[in-house]
Write a structure and sequence with these properties.
about 200 residues, mainly beta, single chain, about 35% strand, two-stranded antiparallel ribbon, Deoxyuridine 5'-Triphosphate Nucleotidohydrolase, Chain A
């Protein structure tokens, strides 16, 4: 495993082969840093909201089960518009950029230092061969609401080359190809269903 530096990233962006990295649109050349690519906040956001149910259930067979998406509210903004992320609130967004990773590269997506210092945290790992807008799970762990501007560079992706290319697609990649934010699909995990089936009746 090797962290790609600026020259390697630029080479990948310009290659015409299966190892090519695509970032569309790459609005400014200085988005490519020494060991990362700055990425922008997209226009669609899912914002967590409180409901009357005291918790989010992940077992679909439970009485009164509601999917995680019912605890989120969809909002859309234009470039330059703003939305506020409140303390202890989770929002799911995507990058403005559509990204196609080669099958021998995966990405770690982190909040940029300027936003981490405001209390905004994100940490996402994106599998090799991914196609779509990177998911951004934003969380405000500070004491103050923070206003985010759509289109601003809120995160950075570090790219790692792996020795053996991965399969470009498997049937179990739940978030492959998304261009808008998607709620958690943890309830679709096979282990949740198996564990619910083997538990003792109460």
């Amino acid at each position: 495993m090797e962290l790609l530096g600026k020259s390697a990233i630029l080479k990948r962006l310009s290659e015409d082969s299966d190892k090519r990295l695509r970032v569309i649109p790459l609005l400014e050349n200085d988005q490519v840093g020494e060991v990362s690519i700055d990425l922008r906040l997209g226009t669609d956001v899912l914002v967590s909201v409180l409901t009357r149910k005291p918790y989010i259930s992940l077992v679909q067979g439970d009485v009164g089960f509601r999917g995680p998406e019912s605890y989120l509210q969809t909002t859309r903004r234009e470039l330059g518009d703003r939305f506020v992320l409140y303390p202890n609130q989770v929002s799911i967004a995507t990058t403005l950029e559509y990204i196609a990773l080669p099958t021998d590269v995966y990405a770690d997506v982190l909040s940029r230092s300027s936003y981490t210092r405001l209390g905004i945290h994100m940490n996402t790992m994106v599998q090799p061969g991914f196609r779509g807008c990177f998911p951004l799970e934003l969380f405000n762990h500070g004491n103050n609401p923070v206003e985010l501007v759509v289109g601003s560079r809120v995160c950075q992706a570090r790219l790692f080359e792996i020795s053996s290319p991965a399969a470009s697609h498997t049937p179990f990649r739940k978030y492959f190809g998304n261009v808008r934010p998607v709620a958690s699909r943890a309830q679709d995990d096979r282990d949740i269903k198996r564990l619910d089936a083997v538990r003792e009746p109460r």
